Amino acid sequence: MTAAQPRHASAFDPWSAEFVADPYPAYAELRERGRAHYFEPSRQWLIPHHADVNALLRDRRLGRTYLHRFDHEEFGQTPPPPWQEPFHTLNGNGLLDLEPPDHPRIRRLISKAFTPRTVQRLAPTVHRLADELVAAVCADGGGDLLSQVAEPLPVAVIAEMLGLPAEDRALLRPWSAAITGMFELNPSEEAARRAVRASVEFSDYLREVIAARRTDPGEDLVSALIAAHDDGHRLTEQEMVSTCVLLLNAGHEATVNTTAGGWLTLFSHPEQLAALRAGPEALLPTAVEELLRYDTPLQMFERWVLDDIEVGGTVIPRGSEVALLFGSANRDPAVFPAPDRLDLARPDNPHVTFGAGIHYCLGAPLARLELTASFGALLRRAPSLRLAAEPEWRPGYVIRGLRGLHVEL
Questions:
Q1: In whole angstroms, how far apart are CA 386 and each of 144, 145, 365, 407?
Q2: Mean pLDDT over residues 220-247, rounded?
Q3: Bridging pattern class, strands 233-234 and 300-305
Q4: Residue 387 is inside which H or E element, if any?
Q5: DSSP code, position 141
Q6: Residue 61 to residues 2, 143, 354: CA-CA distances in angstroms?
Q7: What is the DSSP string of 261-327?
Q8: Is 66 strand, coil or helix?
């Protein structure tokens, strides 16, 4: 083993529009060059291979946070400025960024409310909403799939789950977009201030919802989170607020970007789209998994090194941050035969799009349901759907998606 030697990842340029549009050739170069690459602009170690990404997601020597073991100074990090506190309180109490012992306690409590039966019960609603949104696009002869189907469907589903009135749905997407802007590499102060404002507004809104459900509970997820208990433990109000926000942000962003990006992928592979249209019932389950793999909505998942680790003969010391490249792992030829080929019937598809280990996405079944419903509705109702204009990618890399996807019938 050798001590960590910074090596600039020359092919990796997350602020380049060209790279964001197609990062996969750069990933292939990173995989060819080695298993760990230091990226000075973000001060992270890039991990491009599937086996390493999968292993490090499960390795308890790493964490989404380090504050359960160290303070900022002990860990060699600069504390965030005090004005960012609303964002960090909201994010730090969410399941995605917690570590044991808080993580298993909260996951158990949430699992009592967000059960497989909950998702199963939502299925008719999800399919109805998808059909209504697709029918409106068909009635117009086309439109923007992103704004007219991909975005409103998961927002409506989350609002339905939380028992939020339909007139409030328009608030949710802007809050989500502003908060997730902080997950990009080196976010600007302007992006941080937008995230803080959204954190305050969304938290205040949810506290009012929680207060109302305490006095008048219903059949919604907020009421179930209030009622959930385990060995005398209950979720705090902040934990409930952070859980609701995470359900929107994590599930929503992935579903939106996989819907729009997935259709762009299908339009770029007409023979695969033709096969899907010929047999959607049989092919759709594996097609959804392949679209999640082929163009991953969450390209990077970051973790802190709590104790020294070794990757490919290189020691990465405590205090470092690793960037697990999901998009690269999902194109690793060591795991996926012909990884750059879209194969909607791919039988063995161990993609890491939903993560692994204790932070595996709790909402993965719901995301799959939403994707199956929206793709299925479009395949049934719009068999001649085609691209009307070349789309543009948003500048963000970590959560990667299109600005829009204009289609016609």
A1: 12, 11, 28, 6
A2: 86
A3: unpaired
A4: strand 386-387
A5: T
A6: 19, 48, 20
A7: HHHHHHHT-HHHHHHHHHSHHHHHHHHHHHHHHHT-SB-EEEEEESS-EEETTEEE-TT-EEEEEHH
A8: coil
Query: How many other CB atoms are found less than 10 A from the CB of residue 161?
Result: 24
Give one DSSP letter per residue of 18-61, joined into a string.
HHHH--HHHHHHHHHH-S-EEETTTTEEEE--HHHHHHHHH-TT
| Residues 267-313 pLDDT 10s | 999 999 999 999 999 999 999 999 999 999 999 999 999 999 999 99
* Residues 6+ positions from 62 with CB-CB distance below 8 Å: 56, 303, 304, 305, 306, 309, 322
Task: Report residue 82's pLDDT band, with 50, 70 and 90 as the boundaries.
Answer: very high
Q: Which helix (H) or strand (E) holds 407?
A: strand 406-408
Report pLDDT for 96: 82
What does the alpha-carbon distance between residue 104 and residue 99 come to, in Å, rounded to a whole number?
Answer: 8
Label residue 30 exposed, middle or buried (CB < 10 Å: 0-12, 13-18, 19+): buried
In the block, tokens 């409930």 appear at 240
> Quick check: 29 and 11 in contact, CB under 8 A?
yes
Rg value, the chain, Cα: 21
Q: Give 109's pLDDT tier (boundaries 50, 70, 90).
A: confident
The answer to pTM > 0.85 is yes
For 135, residues 6+ apart whose C-beta sits below 8 A from its C-beta are 381
Q: Is residue 286 exposed (0-12), middle (13-18) or buried (19+ Cβ within 10 Å)?
A: middle
> For the chain, percent helix, then strand, then coil, each to nearest 5?
55, 10, 35
Instruction: Kindly report the CATH class assigned to 2-408.
Output: mainly alpha
Helix (H, G, I), strand (E, B) or coil at 229: strand
pLDDT reading at 360 higher than 90: no
Burial class (CB in 10 A: 0-12, 13-18, 19+), 159: buried
